[in-house]
Amino acid sequence: MDSKSNVAQLLEQIDAPALIVKQGAIIAVNQTAKSHFISPDASIEDALGPYYQDYCQLKSGSLFLTVHFCETDYPCAIHTMDDQHLFVLEEPMQEDHLQAFTLAAAHLRTPISEMMLALDALPKEDVKTRGKLNRSLFRLQRIVGNMSDAGMLLHNSKNTNTDLCSITEEVLEQASALFEACDIEFTYQLPQERIYALANSELIKRAVYNLLSNAVKFSKNSHPIDFKVEKCGNRLLFSVTNLAEDKIMPHNLFNRYKRIPMIEDPRYGMGLGMAIIKSAACNHGGTVLIEKNNDGMIRITMSITLKKSSAVVVRTPIIIPDIYGGQSQALIELSDVLSASMYENL
Questions:
Q1: Among 79, 59, 80, residue whose Cα is nearest residue 16
Q2: Residue 172: in which H helix or E strand, if any?
Q3: pTM flag (> 0.85)
Q4: DSSP readout, 200-234?
């Protein structure tokens, strides 16, 4: 059986629109792609549009971005295969996929609040038990928060002029203090300049927290976690690097919330964390790149496009609603990786 037949068989095993690209040309598509009117005659450069240069720099690993075929935008994961690239397109997110999460989250918030109030009434002496209970409740709050916000992944975020370095530094400083208390080695670097651009600050912060949480959960032998923010042209790159465990990453990393329930490693969670990272990149005209070298080092880079507002900007302090009920956002977002001792005196 020749290589062309092997490629055709591989594509037909994928139940989503899929195509193979070699040297910038589409050489094969599966039947599902054909049903979406995607043919080998299509131009991959036109489909990638502003992301074409990002694609040209892809040498290894996987890249997530948006492609445009037949007047439709598709979320797309690109995987390297020797001298070829496998493009797997996702259907645009559907309301019914995520609406159930939002509905369930709304009904879970009340019993969680009641449990937290009941915990406050317990004797204070057994701090270790309180720490474990508090951490579990904070983990529940994180899950419910992700479920509640699932609906926002369907829509473009409302962006305002934002000091991106400032909001990222706030997240990294809080994470660094918590990691140090848990003996997790963590370093970070930020640009020296202030970088203002149109952005959804809360979505960016949520994405950064999820990048950090995933890095810690899957790090090998307590290897140091390194986070770097750097400006590259009109892009801002958020990269987290760590030594990963010797496990194969799921191929559907960005839409695992759609998977069939099964017994699996609990660290994978519901899969909404990576969906939030993907959403943050897409809503800011960026990409997500996953690279793993032969030494086991893995780097995930979320990029966003720096867009400026043409309107005259007048800055004034504003009151932002506290969606965390006075609790620390860092303690909630990182509850999957922090020790129970961090929650004993809350």
A1: 79
A2: helix 164-181
A3: yes
A4: -HHHHHHHHHHHHHHHHHTBSTTPPEEEEEEEETT
